[in-house]
Every structure is written in structure tokens, then in C-alpha cells.
Amino acid sequence: MASDKGYFGYIRRLMMMVGIWRLLDYQTSTLKRRIYEVYAVLFQLICLSALVSLIGELPILFRTNNATAAMDNIGKIIATVVVIFKMTMWRSNQMLRLMRLVLHQDSDIRLQPDSQIKAIYQRHQNYDDKFISLIVSSAVMIAVCAAGFGDVDCYLYTRQFRNLNQTQKPLPMNLWYPFDRNRHYVFVLIDQNIRPSMACLCIGVVSASVNSVIVFLKLQLTLLQRNFRSFDGCKGNDLKALCVEHQKLIEFVAIFNGAMRNIIFLEYTVSSLTFATVIFQITTGDQLVFSFTMLAYISLQLLTFAWNSNEILIQSIELAKAIYESRWYDQSKSTKLLLYTMMMRCQKPLCLRIGLLGVMDLNAGLSRLKLGYSYTSVMKT
After folding, report:
1. What is the DSSP string of 256-292?
2. The pTM is what?
3. Dihedral sign, Cα of residue 87, residue 91, residue 92, residue 94
4. Measured CA distances, 168 to 154, 185, 276, 312 (Å)
5. In terms of pLDDT, which residue wins out, 27 or 297?
6. Which of 8, 51, 60, 140 could form a disulfide bond with 80, CB atoms 3.0-4.6 angstroms apart?
7. Which residues have CB under 8 Å from 46's CB, separation 6+?
8. What single string gives the DSSP state of each residue in 284-326?
9. What is the per-residue pLDDT for 10?
10. Max Cα separation, the chain?
11. What average pLDDT does the chain have?
């Protein structure tokens, strides 16, 4: 099992925080495992309750003709649904199998004595940790803007009109409650700070965890390229080991696509609508700070995923170039044939797929953002 110092150490701690990490250390006692399982269920139920509150408030918003607030809730509902699907995906047996595989591979790479391998490993780990921090902090910033600025508005409003009998006191977010919100105003304000923070943290961690696995795949491809370039053909077993490693990477991508295809398809198809609802809010001048923060996060999340997916595609093609740059011309006929077969296989690049819609790359990510602007034009007319 990978330690906290391994490639997945940072994201592992964050995933445990939001209750989606299933591979507890074998030394963990049964009592601690049960406590963690209860904690994980409670955390996810709280996130699910946020979805219920958002949906429950929609009929009231439509009845009062509050279109801007309704669009805001719809955007949050879409984002929450995607996250719930991702949380379910992380707790599936497919992802459990995948994470066991990558943790084992991570342990093997960290034990390599070669200084170049260690340098490549450290560079990718630092790169991934920065991406994790950026994505998670951006998601948390959404909660800060949604609840924090709303709290300030509530404070100023109630201070100005504290002597008046308001039919409905202001709140940071449009959430439904099965009781009188005015009567339990303090509790509702506390809840509207806690639940959005937990939900946004979960959104950031789930998105970062997927990117973390993709960057690890990029690390493996980079190491495989390095090993092929340094291959000298003196040991036939070395070449066979490299071929087996390439086959494992192909299997890795197949497992990942199998586990993620529905999630990627869902996020890809709804990202434009979410993007459009945020732009619509900006054009109406409502909640500008929150809207701009949400817009930046959606763009960051989509383009980061598209960029890393595009890198996998490029690196898998570059593997053929790495084989060509080896001393293949000094090898035996059988070795040359094996290398040639490898190069032919590399012409079919490894890629992450959007269900049946094709390959996830930078062009696909940019097309979603463009489509979001198109949706905005339709909603404004």
C-alpha cells in the first residue's frame, strides 16, 4: 500500500476527508474501519441532502417568477448530480481494482534506484500536487463566495431592517427547508455555510482525484519512453518486460475508460449547460463575484481534464518515436520485428473516451466552452 509520501499521498488524504477512499491500510483496526465507513456515509448523505434542498426550492422560485435564482439552482443541481455520480464511481469495484493496480505500480516505481527515474517521478508528483491544490482551492473558493458574501449581505440587511417584521429574512442561498426559516434563522445560516462548503470540497476532491490518475498514466508513459530510449538489446528479457509494461498500460486505459465512460459523458454533455447558466447570471448582474468564481472553476476543471487527456494521447504516440530513437539497428532480426510491432501498435494512441462521442482532447474541451456561449445567446433571446 502506498504511503503518504507516495504519488497518491496528497490526494489520498483528501479523498479520505470526503469519504470516497476505500483502500484503508491493512494495519487499520476493524473499529477504525467501521468508524470511517460511518463517517463516509454521513458525509455523502449531507452532500445528497444539498441536492434535495436545491430541487425542493425550485417550485417556489418558479412560482415567484425569480428566474435568476432558479437558473442558479439549476446550475448547482447539475454540478451536484455529476459529483454524486463520481462519488458512486469511486466506490465501485472497477475503480477499486484500478486503484489497487496504480498503488502497486506506484510502489514499484518509487523503489527504482535509478536517479533519472526518481527525477521524472518527482517532477510528475509535484506537477500533480499543484493541480490538486489549484482545483480543490478553486472549488472551496466557490463556497466562500456563495456563503461568505451572502452572510455579509444578510448581516447588512438585517441590521438595517432589524426593527421591521419581514415576511422572509434574506439568506445566502436558495435552499428548501421543511420548517419555518425565519423561526430558525441562525440554524439556517449556519447550515448554509457548512453544507455548501462540504459539497464544494467534495466537488474539488473528486475532480482532482480523476486528474491525478490521468497524470499518473502520463508518468508511466514518460518512464516507458525513457526505458525504450536507453534499451541496448543486451538482455532479451528487458525488451519483453517493456512490452509487457506497454500491454499493462493499454489494459490500464481500458479499465479507466470502462469505469469513467458514463461519468465523462455526463460531465461533458452537461458542462455547456452549467457554463451557460453561470454566464446568464453574469449578464443579469446578479451575484457577480460568485458567478465569476464559478465560471473560472468550470473552465479550469474542463480544460485541465481536456489538457491532461490530450497529453496522454500525445505521449502514447511519442512512444513510437522513443522506440525509433533506441539502438534498434544494432539488434537481432527477431528483436527488430518485435520493436516494429510495438511501433505499429503505438499508431493507435491511448486515449480517454467520452462514451460514444469520441476522444476527450483539447478540441473537445474548447468546443464545450464555445457551446456554452451559444446556449447563453439562446437563453437571452
Report:
1. HHHHHHHHHHHHHHHHHHHHHHHHHHHHHTSSHHHHH
2. 0.83
3. positive
4. 12, 10, 30, 53
5. 297
6. 51
7. 195, 198, 199
8. HTSSHHHHHHHHHHHHHHHHHHHHHHHHHHHHHHHHHHHHHTS
9. 92
10. 92
11. 79
> Is 2 domain-assigned?
no
Task: Name the more confident of 375 and 106.
Answer: 106
pLDDT of residue 308: 84
Residue 138 in grid coordinates: 478553486
Q: What is the pLDDT of residues 38-66, one digit of tens each?
A: 998 898 888 888 888 889 988 888 888 88
> pLDDT (tens digit, 9 = 90+) per residue, 269-282?
776 667 666 666 66
- Whether 61 contacts 101, CB under 8 Å: no
CA atoms within 13 A on the CB side of 174: 23
3-state secondary structure of 180: coil
Does the residue 49 lie in any domain?
A: yes
Residues 6+ apart with CB under 8 A from 114: none
Per the CB < 8 A criterion, the answer to whether 110 and 121 are in contact is yes
In a domain, 328, yes or no: yes
1 within domain boundaries: no
Angle, CA of 76, 82 and 84, to the nearest 5°:
100
> Which residues lie below 8 Å from residue 347, measured CB to CB, with a gap of 6+?
317, 320
Side chain identity at 263, as an amino acid letter? Answer: I
> How many angstroms separate the Cα of 330 from the Cα of each of 226, 234, 325, 334, 342?
18, 10, 12, 12, 17
CA 113-118-121 angle, to 5 degrees, is: 140
Candidates 96, 102, 100, 135; CA nearest to 7 is 102
Buried b (16+ CB within 10 A) or exposed e, 97-111: ebbeebbebbeebbe
Q: What angle do CA 87, 93, 95 make, to 5 degrees?
A: 60
Domain count, the chain: 1
Residue type for position 49: S
Neighbours of 168 (CB within 10 A): 7
Say if CB 23 and CB 96 are below 8 A apart: yes
Is 85:261 a contact under the CB 8 Å cutoff? no
Contact 110, 11 (CB under 8 A): no
Domain housing 135: 9-380
